[in-house]
Amino acid sequence: MPDAATIQQMFAEVAPGYDRANRALSMGVDVMWRRRTVKIVAPQAGERGLDVCSGTGDLCFALQRAGASMLGADFCAPMLMRTHHKQPSSGHRSEFLAADAMNLPFGDNQFGFATVAFGIRNVADPVVALREMARVVRPGGRVVVLEFCKPRLPVFASLYRFYFGHILPRLGKWISGAKNDAYRYLHDSVQAFPERTAFLELMQEAGLASPRQRLLTGGIAAIYRGEVQAG
User: Fold this and answer.
1) Phi and psi dihedrals of 193, rounded to 5?
2) Which residue from 34, 137, 184, 223 could staple onto 141, CB 3.0 to 4.6 Å apart?
3) Where are the alpha helices (H) located in the chain, listed in sequence order?
4) Band of pLDDT at residue 23, cut at 50, 70 and 90
């Protein structure tokens, strides 16, 4: 896996075309995945939430529309700059700041929940990031993760591997206008990242209680949820 500085630079370079490429490559399915994530988070009106590895703010804004008071954090400032045009013209606005998921600049028990969408696999130590998310969430709150998986249904899995390994990296580079290998990195990072039961074990290692998962779209993605314990 590339080091943190390399990943940061990669996302900075791809930021201008990031949203356009995401919509095209997923054919809009990523929007549905975020809606499902919002339902699993189930934010209360006015509840304060933190979205880590927030990127251009898609999940942050989805949770805001559901009534949460949101703060988004990402270690790549150029990605966060893309959130400005997504802010609502009136009413409550989400806040964003540059911050490292493994060293969040917040005190303990500050949020009702914390989320991360398609970002935990980019962190050098996911367990440290999960612990940080749990630390800043009050006891009884929840940590919810949306991340890619590898499908296991034989025919579907074969088609997915061909698209994800051969078509997506080239198409993503063309649509986004990226000069780097960000979409090859996307493929490689998903292949290497712990998923399903293995990721639930990471959540337990981070101290989260009752970790569970819900697979999406034939196992292409999964939503993981764990509760923050007292003490």
Assistant:
1) -80, 140
2) 137
3) 4-14, 18-26, 29-41, 58-65, 77-81, 126-136, 154-162, 168-176, 182-192, 197-205
4) confident
Residue ranges and CATH numbers for the domains of the chain are 4-227 (3.40.50.150)
Which strands sit side by side in the sheet containing 48-52, from one edge to the other?
95-98, 69-74, 48-52, 111-117, 137-148, 221-227, 209-216
Q: Which residue has 């999960």 as its token pair?
A: 130
Whole-model pTM: value is 0.93
Q: What distance in Å separates the CA atoms of residue 146 and residue 224, rounded to the nearest whole number? A: 6
Whether the Cβ atoms of residue 207 and residue 229 lie closer than 8 Å to each other: yes
Q: Give how far Cα 198 sits from Cα of 11, 89, 212, Å.
A: 26, 42, 11
- pLDDT of 180-219, one tens digit each? 677 788 888 889 999 999 999 999 999 999 999 999 999 9
Looking from the CA of 46 toward its CB, the CA atoms found within 13 Å total 0
